Structures are given as C-alpha cells and as structure tokens.
Amino acid sequence: RMMMLGIKFGGDVPFKTVFLHSMVLGEDGQKMSKTRGNVVDPVSLIDEFGADSLRFYLSTMAGQDQGIIFSRARVEGYRNFCNKLWNAARFVRMNLDGYDPAWFQREVIAGETLFARDRAALWILSRALEVAVEVGALFEQFRLDLAAHAIYQFVWGEYCDWYLELAKGDLGGDAPAELRQLTQGTLATVLDVILRVLHPIAPFITEAIWQELPRPPGDPASLMIADYPRVTDWRGEGEERHPWRMAGPYPHFGRLMQDARVIAAREDIGRLIDVVVAARGLKAEFKLSPGKRVEVVVRCDDADVRGAIADQAEAIVRLARLSGLRVVDASEALPREVATRVVRGVEVILPLVGVIDIDAEKARLEKEIGKLEKDAAGLDRKLQSAGFLAKAPPEVVAKDRARREQIAVDLETLQATLRSLG
Fold first, then answer.
1. Within a 13 Å sphere around the CA of 209, how many CA atoms are in the beta-carbon half?
2. pTM of the model
3. Is position 75 within any domain?
4. Cβ neighbours of residue 218 under 8 Å, at least 6 residues apart?
C-alpha cells in the first residue's frame, strides 16, 4: 500500500530497501495479544530502561529468523551496558586535564610518537579501528545483531575491562608528561571511535557523551553529522586488497595495521591479559580472595617473551593484585607444591607453600571430588534409564546431560589440582 501510494502521489517509490525482522513475541513465547495479556508497551520500557537500552536489545535480536521472545531482563542488561559506557566516559573526562587534542593529532595521529612509546595504545587503537571496519561491514549487510554484539564485546571486554585499567598507571602525577598526553589522547580518540560506531544503535547516550569530549578544530557540531569511521581508500588487488585510509578521528588505518610494531604490541598485550587472567584463576582455584597478595612466577624459554613480560610486570602485578612477579627461564627448578596454568607457551605458576594449608586443601578437594563423583553416578543411572528418557520432557533430559558434562569437566579440574599438591 505504501509503495502504491508513493508512486501515485509522489511519482516515485518511497523506499528502495526494506529490512524485515522476526515477530517480537511475549515473554511466554506467544504472539502478543491483549486477550493473552502479554503485550509490552514500548513507551513504558523506555521510561524504565531508556530508549538506547531498548534499541540495543532489539538490534541484538534482529538477526534471528524465528520469533523473538521478548526478555525484560535482557533490556535491563543493555541498560547496564549503557551505564558502563557512561561511567567509562566519565573516567576519561576526569583524566583529561591538560590534554591538547591538537598535540595528539600532530604528534600521534600524523607523527611517530605512538609507535615509539606505548604497546597498550597501539593495541587498543588498532582494535578500535578494526571493530569499526567490522561493524560498518555488518551494517551494510543489515546484520544488526552481529554489529551490536561486536561493539558490545569491544567496549565492555576490551576498552573498559582492560585498557582503562592499563591506562591508570600512565595517568598519575609521576608519569612522564608525553606518556600522559599520549594516554589521554588514546582514551579520548578510542572513545570517539566507539561513539561514532555505536551512534546508529544508541543515538542519545552517544550524542550526550560526544558533546562533552574535547575534540580538534574542524569537528562537526553534532555526532549525527560526524563521519562514520568507514574505509575511504583501499590498497592492493585481489586477496592482497586491504583498507588503507578511513574517515573519522584516526585516518591512517593501513599504516597502523600493517606496522610490525603494532602486530608485536597486540601480541604482547594479548599475552599480558592471558597472564593476568591465569593468575586470577589460580587464586580463585584455591579459594584465595581477589585481594590476597601472592607472588606468581612466569616461566618461559623465549628470552624476547621474558623481556616483554618483565617490561609489563608492574601492570600485571597491579591488575592481578599480586605481591610480586618473577620472570624466569624455563630451566629454573621450582618447588613441588605449585599450581600451574599455561598460556601462549608461558607457564604461570603459583607457589603454594606458605600460601595455603596443603593438608587442609587436599582434604577439601577430596571431599569435593567425592561429592561430584556421587552426583555423576546418580545422573548416569538416571540418563541410562529408558523410562526416564521416554517420559521426561526433552529440555529436562538436555539439562541433565549438560549437568553431567559439566561435572566431568569439574572433576578433571579438581583432580589435576589435587595432583599438583603432591
């Protein structure tokens, strides 16, 4: 009808591209109907959670080819994401005293200062531009769900969880002035890229934050008319074709992504993250509180890798909340009572003597293993029962099978931990 009316009264088709999405169902999985009482008023959702949260939720569900079962909890989850972004932006603004956007544009974006100083800045800038290109391509394919997931994971899992924490060490009063300026500019520039990429999905919060950011002269007055960080120039042919320049606050995409120093920095930061996660995991494995300060040993036979980890020791100690970090050659002998995890060919080792009561820990593990073995035996009997399999709802059977698989994983972990105690 709209097509016919547009041609009749406007002389042209009103639109040439149509996006079809699945039907949004009630939380009971049924078509929304007043008689069923499962209709959700979007205005009340906007009042409760905000328009951006609802838009984000609907974007993440837009790629499903079946009915979308509405979930109030998911909308609330995306409100939490918006709060996370708002708090991250507040942290950035609070740490921009003395920041000069013109200096960053001249010395870092157009110069070589970035490449000489900071692995973390190289890592997060390259990842931000990579995500911008990925999300832009997904928008063009109308994969709003994948685009929303990609930007969500980057903002929460990389920018907030890791880069903001790494940056804190370079923002203190004792940090060199140039390093502080570089860190400030990286925080602001990556946030700028995030806001431009996220704006089509969450226009209100992104505009509000963008208006508060210091920006170089020449930027538009509103994020609505700012350039999306899209690729504007490509190099190479065929399989060798790759992005070279892009619109937005950091145009030199190709130079950044092709530089060997950037590739090395990404590997180093990835290893740092893995070491920190492993150290935290070892503490949790033995029921140590996150704030418990213990020494961790990193053992590796590659001298270059040892050097890179030693350079990042302060950040690793701070992020994993350790008392110290020793980086040693793979040939160095260690006490018998240790717990170990291996990441990227690096051993992350927690010496246990003096940290835990070894005998008490063995007793705890044996008790927990015994309980899990009893649970596993009960589930095995249940899942081998023809009567249960014939009568139980499929979702109940699937839940029990998943529980049995998880018990097997947990048992293997606990038994390995027990063996490490001698």
1. 29
2. 0.82
3. no
4. none
